[in-house]
Amino acid sequence: MRTVLITGASRGIGAACAREFAEAGYRVALNYHRSEDQANALCAELTAQGCEAMTVQADVADSAAVTRMVDAVKERFGAIDTLVCNAGIAMQKLFTDTTDEEWSRMLSTDLSGAFYCARAVAPDMIRAHCGCIVNIASMWGEVGTSCEVAYSAAKAGLIGLTKALAKELGPSGIRVNAISPGVIMTDMMQSFSVEDVAALRDETPLCTLGTPGDIAHAAVFLASDNARYITGQILGVNGGMVI
Ligand code: NAP
């Protein structure tokens, strides 16, 4: 049986990924940062459905905490063969108003977090000559957007990390891909007004916004053997917003 560790699995896209990987027959380790109750409720839901699931608290921006998280998962489930780096924060702010702390927090969560997690799971994957990493980037990492300079930079970095890591780990039998979501209706979109959300929908060629399940389906596909020849790719799941 395969084991997936999903960061930021308490809510939104990460929670949808957890449900989808459980459905696909994986053991699921659910990382959360602050939303302990939601993570525990999801864990109970998956367990009731017959999935082997566990929760594990960690701030992915903290390298030592990531090491402890991976050790805890390995102790319970054995080696991790699939990693979904989903944990992330967003921020809408003028570039000139962004503080050093905000910039640093964005980079350490949305970019360094994936680096720490991949580095912590890679040795076992290399030993097993098999494994799969799926990073959740953003279309803004591909094309950039106004008032989200720090977020766009972090996600652009995650795209670079994905491509470079795919080259480095490919000879070890490990695939590394990213999903680049468009506008997905989760808590992350709460700071947008109804008008802004409607405008984003109108700009989307498929004329509808995405759901967490849309991203989860893509993640399970990329982790599956059906994607065995796919690595280093950035899969846009965005309704055609960025082509
Ligand atoms: P969300 O609903 O706000 O959920 C964010 C998740 O990330 C939560 O589970 C949260 O955990 C976790 N998280 C945040 N900081 C963390 C940290 N330091 N350590 C560990 N976990 C942390 O967001 P979402 O929309 O599902 O976004 C998930 C990912 O998709 C993010 O990387 C985001 O950038 C990306 N994305 C989203 C959209 C969109 O339109 N929604 C578009 C493109 C990309 P706690 O609740 O436990 O603190």
Q: Give me the strand/helix succession.
A: EHEHEHEHEHHEHHE
Mean pLDDT: 98
- Give the neighbour order of strands across the main sheet: 3-2-1-4-5-6-7
Radius of gyration: 17 Å
Structural category is alpha/beta
Regions with pLDDT < 50 over 5+ consecutive residues? none
Amino-to-carboxy terminus distance: 36 Å
Describe this structure in words.
With 243 residues, this protein is α/β, with parallel strands linked by helices. It has 8 helices and 7 strands; from the N terminus they run E-H-E-H-E-H-E-H-E-H-H-E-H-H-E. It has a 7-stranded parallel beta sheet, sandwiched between helices. Helix 3 runs parallel beside helix 4.
Task: Kindly summarize this structure in a few lines.
The chain is an alpha/beta fold.
Features:
single chain; 243 residues; 7 strands; binds NADP nicotinamide-adenine-dinucleotide phosphate
